[in-house]
Design a protein that fits this description.
The protein has 242 residues and is of the alpha/beta class. It has helices at residues 42-49, 72-75, 93-103, 109-117, 133-145, 163-178, 190-194, 219-241; strands at residues 4-12, 18-26, 31-35, 57-62, 65-66, 78-81, 151-155, 182-187, 199-204, 207-212. Helices cover 37% and strands 24% of the residues.
C-alpha cells in the first residue's frame, strides 16, 4: 500500500493557473523529492496532499484512504510543514511542542525528545514569536516530526536553516524513512535533496514532467534541460492549436 497517491489530480486557481493531471505515489520507506522553478506548482501539490486544497478532478489518497474519508486518528499519523510553521507566537518553544504532540495523541515526553533531537535546549523558554526565522523553522520541523508520523509532507523545509540545522534535517528524514515513513519533500536545493532522495520528480507549469536519478551526473544541467524541453514542447503545441 502506498502512503500517498495522486491519481489524475487537478485544480485551477482564479486567473487560470493551477495544476492538472498529477499522478504520483510515495511508498512507505521512500523519500521523494519534488523540484521545480518558482511558480511550477509545488506548493499547490503539497496543499492538495494535505487537504488544504480540494481537487477539482482526480483523487488523493492518504494511507490508502481517499482524502475526504481519512479519520482523525489517521490524520494524527501525518506530519507536515507547508509555507510557514504553525505555532502560537506568545507561547514558548517547549509549550508549542507539547501542544503539537498532544494534538496528535503523543506523550508529553515526545516534546522533550524533540528538543534534544533538534538542539533546541537553549530556546525552551523563549517565545516562538521572538525567535529568528531559522529557529522558527527548526521548531516547526520538530513539531512536524516529533510524533514519528507514517507520512511526512514538507514544503521547502531547509528555508532559513543554517548548515548545522540542514544536517539535522537530513538525518531526521533519513532515519524516519528507514523506520518506514513515506516522505514527500519539495525543494529548490537540488544538490541537497539528491543526498537523501530515492526519487526526484520534476514539476513544471503545473504538471509532473519526469524523474531524475539522484545519483546521476550533473543533476542541475539535467533538470534545466528537462524544463527547457518541456517549455519548448508546450510553446510549439500551443502555437499549433492557435
Amino acid at each position: 500500500m502506498t502512503s500517498l497517491t495522486f491519481a489524475g489530480v487537478g485544480v485551477r486557481h482564479p486567473g487560470g493557473a493551477g495544476v492538472h493531471g498529477l499522478n504520483l505515489t510515495v511508498a512507505p520507506g521512500e523519500i521523494v523529492a519534488l523540484i521545480g522553478l518558482n511558480g511550477a506548482g509545488k506548493t499547490t501539490l503539497m496543499r492538495l496532499a494535505l487537504g488544504m486544497l480540494r481537487p477539482a478532478s482526480g483523487v488523493v489518497r492518504i494511507l490508502g484512504r481517499p482524502l475526504g474519508e481519512l479519520p482523525r486518528t489517521e490524520w494524527a499519523q501525518v506530519g507536515q510543514l507547508v509555507e510557514v510553521p504553525s505555532a502560537y507566537p506568545e507561547l514558548t518553544t517547549r509549550e508549542n511542542l507539547r501542544i503539537a504532540a498532544r494534538l496528535r495523541g503523543a506523550a508529553p515526553s515526545t516534546a522533550e525528545a524533540a528538543l534534544d533531537e533538534w538542539r533546541l535546549g537553549a530556546l525552551v523558554g523563549r517565545r516562538f514569536g521572538r525567535l529568528s526565522l531559522g529557529n522558527r523553522q527548526r521548531v516547526g520541523l520538530a513539531a512536524a516530526l516529533q510524533h514519528h508520523p507514517r507520512l511526512i509532507v514538507l514544503d521547502e523545509p531547509s528555508n532559513a536553516l543554517d548548515p548545522a540545522a540542514v544536517l539535522l534535517l537530513r538525518d531526521a528524514l533519513t532515519r524516519r524513512a528507514r523506520a518506514g515513513a513515506a516522505v514527500l519533500v519539495s525543494s529548490h536545493h537540488l544538490d541537497e535533496v539528491a543526498r537523501i532522495a530515492h526519487r526526484i520528480v520534476i514539476m513544471n507549469a503545473g504538471r509532473l514532467i519526469g524523474n531524475l536519478d539522484p545519483v546521476g551526473a550533473d543533476l542541475e544541467q539535467a533538470f534545466f534541460a528537462r524544463v527547457l524541453a518541456d517549455d519548448e514542447t508546450r510553446a510549439r503545441t500551443q502555437g499549433e492549436v492557435l
